[in-house]
Every structure is written in structure tokens, then in C-alpha cells.
């Protein structure tokens, strides 16, 4: 029988599930199974959901506050916990409490990040001793973005987003706008107008300024709110789409410049965040401290 970690203080900790940004996104091909081949750069920000884990002596996996409209069985945190429990063949249980800060459907990876936090933290709390590589493998079965959150470092990604190489872009201040819409990722990737044959580039090309996101055109055509947010943000800095959106973002050289844009934009109808880009996720940092 696998025992829970003896360090009871870990069970009262709140664990971060940080957001990510796609600093660029190129679609360079398509596999026979329909999945798109990508080149992208992931970087974290200090904007997070927060997760608390409560031991369940009955061995049940449950969610303290299910998201309205999302069946508990479909929640990625529950799927992650059940997957880990099954693979480890353990009889331990947990009640997962999620403090939801990241907007849903925004392209910040909230659900994937929540799942990664569950995998990493329960691996510690349940003393399973799975490697990060194993947890990344499990994470990929839950979603293409989960491995980078398990990895915990800014990364150059290829394949469907699972082939990761650590990268160190500038850790700049960021303004993120969440338009009042949810972008359907599947619809975007199925669009006949989507560019699927971009030329592959190198990390050096990205660092030199190649920041394009091949989804921008289609998303802007289908979601006027996203196009409007891009225009508004571009008045302050280069405005970009993260993933398929709906969130758009811009980087700034100083907190003062970012804050000026933040104060101006939040007066409008937008949901606006001021955040700091991080090449090491807050979860990775916390796990290495405790």
C-alpha cells in the first residue's frame, strides 16, 4: 500500500497553477491523424489558479467546488488525479479545491495547468516518486499543453507541442486582455482559411523578432472582440494572440510602461491583467523549495 507523505504541512499549502503565453505560433504541417504540427514558444507568467489538496481516507477522488456546467468527471483535475492513482496502483484519495483565477477559454492554459499541478503535487503528496518525464508522458494523454506545465520551464516546442527544449526569452512585463468571448480551438484548427504550411524557423529567428501567430487571421475574422482587443493593445506595444486566444497580450520593457497601458485599458470594457513573464514557473519554484 502506498502511503501519503509524512510532511503534513504540504497538505495545507496552496499550490500555483500558472498561466502560459505562446510568444509565437507557427503551423508547419499536419499529421495523418489530423493533428497539426507546430512550432511555438511557451513562457509562464505570475498569474495563477491556486489549488489545495485535502486527503480523503476513503480513497475517493473528488472536486470541492465543481465548475458550473462542467461535469466533475470531465474536469481535467479529476482526470489527472484518477490517471495518477490508476498508473500508480494506489488506494489513496484526495479532494481537490481549485481557486479559479485564470479565465476559461482564453488560451492561457488554465485547465492544462491545473492538471499539471495535480500530477506534480500528488506525486509528491502520495510519495509516488514518478520522474518528471513520466509525468509529462501522462500529461500528454490529458492534453497537448499539459507537458509544458509539468516541465516547468519556458520552452521552444515542436511536434503537437510536446517536444520541448528549454529557452530563455526576456522576462518582460506583460499586459493581457481577455475579450468577452470564448474561442473554439477546434473550429479554428478546422478552418479552411488557416495557414498550415508556414516555413519552419529556428530559435535564433524567433529571438531576432519572428513572432507571428498563424491563428491570428482566422480568429480575428471569426471573433470581432479579439480583433478589437488587438487593435486597442497595439496602441501601446506589439499586440499578439496567445494560442488560439481569446486572450491577447503585449510585452513591455518596464513595469512603469506596462502599468500605464494597464491603467488606460482597464477603464474600457476589457478584463485586463498586469503580469510578469517568467522562464521558470511558480509551481516549479515552489516544488524545489519545499
Task: Give a description of the structure.
Helix content is 31%, strand content 27%. By secondary structure, it is α+β, with helices and mostly antiparallel strands. The chain folds into two domains: 160 residues, 2-Layer Sandwich (Ribosomal Protein S5, domain 2), CATH 3.30.230; 106 residues, Alpha-Beta Plaits, CATH 3.30.70. Helix 1 runs parallel beside helix 2. The longest helix is centred in the middle third of the chain and has 16 residues.
Unreliable spans are none
* Class of secondary structure makeup: alpha+beta
Largest sheet: 10 strands, mixed
The CATH class of the largest domain, by name, is Alpha Beta
Question: What share of the residues lie within helices?
Answer: 25-40%
SSE ordering = EEEHEHHHEEEHHHHEEHEH
Percentage of residues in DSSP E strands: 25-35%
- Roughly how many Å is the radius of gyration? 19 Å
Short description:
The protein is of the alpha+beta class and 290 residues long.
Features:
about 290 residues, ten-stranded mixed β-sheet, Alpha-Beta Plaits, Ribosomal Protein S5, domain 2, about 25% strand, alpha+beta, 10 strands
Secondary structure elements and pairings:
Elements: E1 14-30, E2 36-56, E3 61-63, H1 76-88, E4 93-99, H2 110-125, H3 132-140, H4 146-151, E5 155-159, E6 163-166, E7 173-178, H5 185-190, H6 203-207, H7 216-222, H8 224-233, E8 240-241, E9 248-252, H9 255-265, E10 271-278, H10 282-289
Parallel strand pairs: 3-4
Antiparallel strand pairs: 1-2, 2-4, 2-5, 2-10, 5-6, 7-9, 7-10, 8-9
Helix pairs in contact: 1-2, 2-3, 7-8
Amino acid at each position: 500500500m502506498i502511503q501519503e507523505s509524512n510532511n503534513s504541512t504540504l497538505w495545507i499549502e496552496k499550490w500555483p497553477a500558472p498561466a502560459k503565453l505562446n510568444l509565437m505560433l507557427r503551423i508547419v504541417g499536419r499529421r495523418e491523424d489530423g493533428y497539426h504540427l507546430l512550432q511555438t514558444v511557451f513562457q509562464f507568467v505570475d498569474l495563477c489558479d491556486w489549488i489545495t489538496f485535502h486527503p480523503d481516507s476513503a480513497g475517493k477522488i473528488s472536486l470541492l467546488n465543481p465548475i458550473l456546467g462542467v461535469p466533475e468527471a470531465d474536469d481535467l483535475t479529476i482526470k489527472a488525479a484518477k490517471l495518477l492513482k490508476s498508473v500508480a496502483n494506489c488506494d489513496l484519495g484526495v479532494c481537490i479545491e481549485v481557486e479559479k483565477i485564470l479565465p476559461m477559454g482564453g488560451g492561457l492554459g488554465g485547465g492544462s495547468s491545473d492538471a499539471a499541478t495535480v500530477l506534480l503535487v500528488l506525486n509528491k503528496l502520495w510519495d509516488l516518486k514518478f520522474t518528471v518525464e513520466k509525468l509529462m508522458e501522462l500529461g500528454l494523454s490529458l492534453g497537448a499543453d499539459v507537458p509544458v506545465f509539468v516541465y516547468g520551464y519556458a520552452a521552444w516546442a515542436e511536434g503537437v507541442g510536446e517536444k520541448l527544449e528549454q529557452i530563455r526569452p526576456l522576462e518582460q512585463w506583460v499586459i493581457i486582455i481577455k475579450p468577452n468571448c470564448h474561442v473554439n480551438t477546434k473550429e479554428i484548427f478546422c478552418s479552411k482559411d488557416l495557414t498550415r504550411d508556414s516555413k519552419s524557423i529556428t530559435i535564433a529567428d524567433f529571438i531576432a523578432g519572428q513572432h507571428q501567430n498563424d491563428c491570428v487571421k482566422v480568429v480575428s475574422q471569426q471573433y470581432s472582440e479579439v480583433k478589437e482587443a488587438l487593435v486597442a493593445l497595439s496602441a501601446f506595444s506589439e499586440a499578439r494572440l496567445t494560442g488560439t486566444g481569446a486572450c491577447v497580450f503585449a510585452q513591455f520593457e518596464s513595469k512603469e510602461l506596462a502599468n500605464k497601458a494597464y491603467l488606460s485599458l482597464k477603464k474600457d470594457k476589457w478584463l485586463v491583467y498586469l503580469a510578469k513573464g517568467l522562464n521558470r514557473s511558480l509551481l516549479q519554484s515552489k516544488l524545489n523549495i519545499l
